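Input record (one chain):
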Amino acid sequence: MNDRLMKAINSKMSTNPLANALRKKAEVIPDLDIEETVPQPTAAAEQADAKVEVINPEGKGETKPEDNAVKQAPAASAPEEQMKPETPETPEGQQTKFLSDDIVEMLAQQVGNEMTAFYEYTAINAWCDGVGLPGFTAWTAKQACDEMAHMKKVLRYLTIAGVSPKLPSISGTVTSYADVKATVDAIYSREKEVTANWRAIAKKALQDADAGTCALAQWFVTEQMEEEDTVEAVKFRLSIGSVLEVDLQLMEQYGD
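The corresponding structure, as predicted from the sequence alone:
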């Protein structure tokens, strides 16, 4: 009985982990029938084991079907390559197009706006000089020069970007005023309009990822903050003092 038991155990040890435990039991239970106790492998299990590794005639092991599937799968592209934006190429011999058509149109219109502001300041300057207000004359002369410089700055920006803009015509500028307060109110309205225009240009430039126009618009918006602050200060002085007192203050501030 012991020989039969040991023979059965040795034949099953390679396929069933229970054989080790049964061999130990057989030493103390001589009548144990190992053939009935050890579960026999099913046909499906034997077929599955055969797929793990097949020995070819040359003695080399073939890989699992799952390994073949993994090896045949195409390698995924690197995330950096997938996310890399395409950079448009500039045709050889042509200048890079820095500005969109919408930005060009808005800046061309702004050249006209700055020129209108210059003309309006010049008209107010002439009126103030005609009524004998040297302080207001000096202030509006300085403001007119600033507006002309602004116009040239925008025009120069368009030129270096390789653009020949179509400039708008100027019309509808007021050239006569009832009193000093009316001139200051007109200046204040003009400055607020210019500010709104530059903020619209800045917004569009951000949408277009136009770094150059963003920088230009930022400079002008900062300039407009100062311009509006100056006009508001003049309006406040007129609200608490006489025209002659404010004129004297402006003469001290802007006169030669």
